[in-house]
Amino acid sequence: MNIPALNVEAAADPRSQDASSQLVAQFARASASLPGAGNAQIDDLREDAIAEFAVAGLPNRRVEQWKYTDLRRMMSEAYPPASAKSKPALTAAQVEAALGEAAGIDAVKLVFVNGALRHELSDVNGLPAGVSLTTLAEALKSHDAWVLAVLGRTNPQAGETVTLLNTAFMSDGVVLRLEPGAKLDRPVHLIHVTAGDTPLAATLRNIVVAGEGSEAAFIESYVSAGATPAQLNVVTELSVGPGAKLRHYKLSGENKRTQHLSSAMVELSEGADYLAVNFADGTELARHQTFLKYAGKGARAHFYGTQLLVERQHCDMTLIVNHDAVGCESREHVKAVLADHAQGVFQAKVIVQPGAQQTDGRQMAQALLLSDNAEFDAKPELEIYADDVKCNHGATSGALDDDLMFYLRARGIPEIEARSLLIQAFIGEVLDQVEHEGLRDALSARAARWLA
Amino acid sequence: MLEIRNLHAEIDGKEILRGLDLTVPKGEIHAIMGPNGSGKSTLAYILAGKDDYEVTEGTVTWNGENLLEMDPDERAKAGVFLAFQYPMEIPGVASMTFLRTAINAHRKSRGEAELTTPEFIRLVKDKAETLNISMDMLKRPVNVGFSGGEKKRHEILQMALLQPSLCVLDETDSGLDIDAVRIVSEGVNALRSPERAFLMITHYQRLLDYIVPDKVHVMSAGRIVRSGGKDLALELEKSGYAGYGADAA
Ligand SMILES: Nc1ncnc2c1ncn2[C@@H]1O[C@H](COP(=O)(O)OP(=O)(O)OP(=O)(O)O)[C@@H](O)[C@H]1O
Ligand SMILES: [Mg+2]
């Protein structure tokens, strides 16, 4: 297959090109060693994706959905894919240190370092009946028929640039399958750590298929063990079956030399119940996208996000919520605490298709600006083609309330502690949504540490 | 001793306090009465350190320390306590967390260890009981969903827990039912000591039946215009503020 549009030959000096060209050139070099190479279906999938990517390249701010996150400008260079051969030595203690408060969570653990699973650091024992867990790399290498059948199927946003890149480069990830009625008593915890001295890119693809009436919690934690510059691209496909209940938590707490692009692709069957809570205090640049499709009646999806940003951190939480079934409920609520020159972004587009009557959708974005130079951009959008719906949205941003600060300080509480109490109260509304107690405590403690 | 000399203060360019003089010795309770808008709350806020006001002239010392140079939390640690006329609601901050943070901040400044959880709970329970405050109420965020009277009792609970030495009560009796006035008054009287001074802002002489003041001051247009004994309150009750230059503001 030919790769059009961008000049691959000029790849001799990668710095002479923009990141889009570098990515296309990297694919040409790496494709033969990606997991599953040689399998026609997998090869086609990857090649079609890079070809489609190459046409437009990374989006700039003139692309409507990327108005506040000019990826082409912010991602000026594409780091080379992490080499499977250079495995940084990393101990369990180092992984725990990198995870901080989230290390103590009792879970089935899959630890990935620089994009590749590390068996010796993982613990996948004790899965109940009806639950199978494997890695994407294993599945692709063994041409796992079930995985090949579902891979890329949950894709409410076909053709979206970042996910195309992911399809081209995906090298590992978690594949979690719950048979109808299966119930996980502990969460499955994906832990991704970047380590080492050289800049690297890692591309993960997770697949979660929750059969009818099943229940599970899936936690993704992304952290750094040091100052490794890294670019992550993570796609998580989640198919929530009829009446299934899926909790999906995510911590993006990497170092400030990390760029993280993530896309959750969610499809909800009748009566499905999906809850996502994103907690982001890491990275230099993050774009966390959620594409949600309601395919069966009476389903509900709640998304909560919190951003704690300093310096020049940029975090974008963008959702496209497509109501295509009767009587479904959606909530998107993001709270951002922004200091210094940080920039927080919240975009949510809720589409109510003709016939998606009795849709109940609410969006809210709130920012606490701790500095005059911080910026919060909120763009809630409603596109409604049905007449019997209940939808609304709101956005607020402001500084800490001086009168409340005075009340606390008049009781002897020092300024920093008073501020911390008020900020914790502000984000508490989001953290309270985390149903897993251990994780909720871990995130609260992490937030408190951020504030200290 | 609280000493206020020639205090001038303004907000948004508008002068509210216009040369206020007031002395409250330790061990005494002084009441301040005066028409709406005369600057009583302004004085209370300035004592507690609210920075919306600009002090343009004058001095305020407590036990010889210059209060005006201190941050609000430093003043609190120096013993100043303001029971707010309108206590603030703080959604998301649990009352118990708030009380504990405040108590421990005071203990820390005195070089004492933080209270353990059981010690803290016992302390709060004891004081809450005497003020007829249910522990259920304290499970809620600070003042959120509290009735007007409950908010005022919560202020006095904080005062009882923090044991300040200069207690400024801004219309703590307003909005209290008859029983609550008695309960709150008992709470205040329990704190009376030779080491403490009280400044009580009130509109009602009724309160002064329960908490008998050593002195009553009349404030008008940003100044103390008359001072007297407890009988002055009775007189005001009859004659109102006519003749005190209330219009001068
Ligand atoms: N931000 C402001 N700008 C201008 N004037 C203000 C401001 N805040 C308060 N004031 C004025 O200051 C004056 C004194 O107010 P203050 O609250 O101290 O009165 P008060 O004696 O406590 O009255 P009350 O008995 O009603 O409680 C009032 O005239 C009020 O309108
Ligand atoms: Mg007042």
Provide an overview of this structure:
- The complex is a heterodimer of chains A (452) and B (249).
- Chain A has ten helices and 19 strands.
- Chain A is an alpha/beta fold.
- Chain A has a domain at 401-452.
- In chain A, a hairpin with a 2-residue loop joins strand 1 (108-113) and strand 2 (116-117).
- Chain B has 249 residues and is of the alpha/beta class.
- Chain B has one domain (2-241): 3-Layer(aba) Sandwich (Rossmann fold).
- In chain B, the strands form three sheets. Chain B has a six-stranded mixed beta sheet, sandwiched between helices. In chain B, strands 2-1-4-5 form a four-stranded antiparallel beta sheet, with helices on one face.
- In chain B, strand 11 (215-220) and strand 12 (223-228) form a beta hairpin.
- Chain B starts with a strand and ends in a 10-residue tail after the last helix.
- The mean pLDDT of chain B is 94.
- Classes of the chains: A alpha/beta (452), B alpha/beta (249).
- Magnesium ion binds next to helix 1 of chain B.
Itemize the secondary structure elements and their pairings.
The complex is a heterodimer of chains A (452) and B (249).
Chain A: H1 19-30, H2 40-56, H3 71-74, H4 92-99, E1 108-113, E2 116-117, E3 131-135, H5 136-141, H6 145-150, H7 161-169, E4 174-178, E5 188-194, E6 200-210, E7 215-224, E8 230-240, E9 245-252, E10 258-268, E11 273-280, E12 285-294, E13 300-309, E14 314-323, E15 329-338, E16 343-352, E17 360-369, E18 375-384, E19 390-398, H8 402-409, H9 415-431, H10 437-451
Parallel strand pairs in A: 1-5, 4-6, 5-7, 6-8, 7-9, 8-10, 9-11, 10-12, 11-13, 12-14, 13-15, 14-16, 15-17, 16-18, 17-19
Antiparallel strand pairs in A: 1-2, 3-4
Helix pairs in contact in A: 1-2, 2-7, 8-9, 9-10
Chain B: E1 2-11, E2 14-24, E3 29-33, H1 40-48, E4 54-62, E5 65-66, H2 72-77, E6 80-83, E7 90-94, H3 95-109, H4 117-130, E8 141-142, H5 148-162, E9 166-170, H6 178-191, E10 197-201, H7 205-210, E11 215-220, E12 223-228, H8 231-239
Parallel strand pairs in B: 3-10, 3-11, 6-9, 9-10
Antiparallel strand pairs in B: 1-2, 1-4, 4-5, 7-8, 11-12
The complex binds adenosine-5'-triphosphate and magnesium ion.
